[in-house]
Design goal:
566 residues, alpha/beta, TIM Barrel, Immunoglobulin-like, 3 domains, binds 6-O-alpha-D-glucopyranosyl-D-fructose, binds calcium ion, glycosidase
Length: 566
């Protein structure tokens, strides 16, 4: 089947089902709860829903640890409800992209249950086992994503297994062709049931460098070291993906998006190229690392001053490099990232202005935009007072490692969790100002952000100037103006540390996007190559017109404006 590339004109909405809407009062979001809210998403104007994992799982990592790929997590519903969800979605013109988590399974998956029985079990080789090293310790020095060693010792069979994430997420051995065939079978099973694509979890980690060499020692004070050179974009990654493409992807008209940390625009171009690529698009991480210290996963917990010019350099490179050669995805939030308005905007005085500014900045770029649940109403980070309020395994492991075992200052670590913790994105969706934000009639699995009486869907819908209505407009504009989808990209005021401005051009149509990333009023004279003859304002985040003339523009705090010329 030929791909129609419908995904280039689409806007995707990500649902983290556990936190979206609870239909039966057990405190956990569920599929029925999603069905109840489909009309809300139709109203917003999105085309596609990406659903974080809903498969059977013991929930060590909230569903990213799967024990049965072909069944639904009990708390979320069952296959009958899922069928109803996708049928209803298709009736309403929405497409469904499922999460595909195949770098690892749960340790409770039947394959792993078999694999650990004995060294000669037929499933042993589905996972990555190694004997202890000469000193009787871990086979190599790799650090896991979630603190501690990436290896777990299995006493009864005397070997270690590899887990890049938690010890309940053993890595599958993609070198084994049987593993690959099982994965392809499972993918076909879902595609034949009607799904419209996959978001592929950490897909570029599936090929590890032969021999699993020790990682270079970059932090001599630490026992374990960051080994991404040996497991990211590994030697057989493209080969495995080509195979998956031939066996599965090419036979369906679907959206595929790879979650691929550690990729450069050059690799991105290669992975998403229309002829030789393997994915529709990917999630790169360079812009998400702009405020993290370099040197691996733990860097995100350490503060870093960053400059707007660094963000410009990263985003422009992706925009320019992939133009006509690949395809970008555009995101500022997901279930692993803090809330963008708290991180890059102002979640106090200029909450609405800065949330809209960030949305403008992102949605006017080239690529497929992703809206993460709650982003469209400006949900913010949460500052829970105690570690006991947190549920995320990454946060809990960090605390255990840094505070309990290594004796770091608990206040400092709690502050880092407030800034970067994944639970910032996972507090329940704020629907209205009733108890627990209308998310559940019971006790929510993770506490609701206390600001729900101020920030919620009901309020946002009533106020025609709200962030929600602004998102609606942005999403609609993408459907009306080809330049947003197809235009090229060039920076204006490249060296500016306060204003982020860029130009898009397509067949005589021009957009000029101007955004103020500060809480100050600032003035800028227009550069020579920007002319405004006949330009109109396409969208603007303040109620009054922007203060601009032929000579220049004065921007209020977090002001954003898009000029359109045809
Ligand atoms: O959490 C992160 C942000 O710092 C990332 O490093 C994240 O661990 C990485 O992007 C992989 O994420 C994906 O796979 C994980 C799962 O915990 C995440 O929720 C998922 O998005 C393991 O399956
Ligand atoms: Ca429920």
């Amino acid at each position: 089947e030929q791909s129609t590339q419908w995904w280039k004109n689409s806007v995707v909405y990500q649902i983290y089902p556990r936190s979206f809407n609870d239909s039966n009062g057990d405190g956990i979001g569920d599929l029925e709860g999603i069905i109840e809210k489909l009309d809300y998403l139709v109203e917003l104007g999105i085309d596609v829903i990406w659903l974080s994992p809903i498969y059977k799982s013991p929930n060590d990592d909230n569903g990213y640890d799967i024990s049965d790929y072909q069944d639904i997590m009990t708390e979320f519903g069952d296959l009958e409800t899922w069928d109803r969800l996708i049928t209803t979605m298709h009736e309403k013109g929405l497409k469904l992209v499922m999460d595909l988590v195949v770098n690892h399974t749960s340790d409770e998956h039947p394959w792993f249950q078999e694999a650990k029985k004995s060294k000669d079990n037929p499933y042993r080789d589905f996972y990555i086992w190694r004997p202890p090293n000469e000193e009787g310790k871990e086979p190599n020095n790799w650090l896991s994503f979630f603190s501690g060693s990436a290896w777990e010792y299995h006493e009864p069979t005397g070997e270690y297994y590899l887990h890049l994430f938690t010890k309940k997420q053993p890595d599958l051995n993609w070198e084994n062709p049987d593993v690959r065939q099982k994965v392809y079978e499972m993918m076909r099973w879902w595609l034949d049931r009607g799904v419209d694509g996959f978001r592929m979890d950490v897909i570029n980690l599936i090929s590890k460098v032969e021999g699993l060499p020790d990682a270079p020692v970059t932090k001599p004070e630490d026992e374990f070291q960051w080994g991404s050179d040996y497991f990211a974009n590994g030697p057989r990654f493209m080969e495995f993906m080509q195979e998956m493409k031939e066996e599965v992807l090419d036979h369906y008209d679907i959206l595929t998006v790879g979650e691929t940390g550690f990729v450069t625009p050059e690799e991105g171009k290669q992975f998403t190229n229309e002829d030789s690529g393997v994915l529709s698009m990917l999630f790169q991480f360079q812009h998400m690392d702009v405020d993290a210290q370099p040197g691996g996963q733990m860097g995100k917990w350490e503060e870093k001053d960053w400059k707007l010019t660094e963000l410009k350099e990263i985003m422009s490179k992706w925009q320019v490099e992939l133009f006509n050669k690949g395809w970008n995805s555009l995101y500022l939030e997901n279930h692993d990232q803090p809330r963008s308005v708290s991180r890059f905007g102002d979640d106090g005085e200029y909450h609405a202005e800065s949330a809209k500014m960030l949305a403008t900045w992102l949605h006017m770029m080239q690529g497929t935009p992703y809206v993460y649940q709650g982003q469209e109403i400006g949900m913010t980070n949460v500052h829970f007072p105690s570690i006991d309020d947190y549920e995320d395994v990454e946060i809990r492991n960090l605390w255990q490692d840094m505070v309990v075992e290594k004796g770091h200052d608990p206040d400092k670590i709690l502050k880092a969790i407030h800034e970067k913790g994944r639970d910032n994105a996972r507090t329940p969706m704020q629907w209205d100002s009733s108890e627990n934000a209308g998310f559940t009639s019971g006790t929510p699995w993770l506490k609701v952000n206390p600001n729900y009486d101020q920030i919620n869907v009901e309020k946002e819908r009533e106020n025609s100037d709200s962030i929600f209505h602004y998102y609606k407009k942005l999403i609609a504009l993408r459907k009306e103006h080809e330049v947003i989808v197809n235009g090229d990209h060039s920076l204006i005021w490249q060296e500016d540390e306060e204003v982020y401005a860029y130009k898009r051009e397509h067949e005589g149509e021009t957009l000029v996007v101007v955004t103020n990333w500060t809480g100050e009023t600032i003035e800028r004279p227009w550069p020579e190559d920007v002319s405004f003859d006949g330009a109109s304002v396409m969208i603007h985040n303040y109620s009054g017109a922007p203060d601009a003339s032929k000579e220049g523009i004065t921007l209020r705090p977090y002001e954003a404006v898009v000029y359109h010329q045809k």
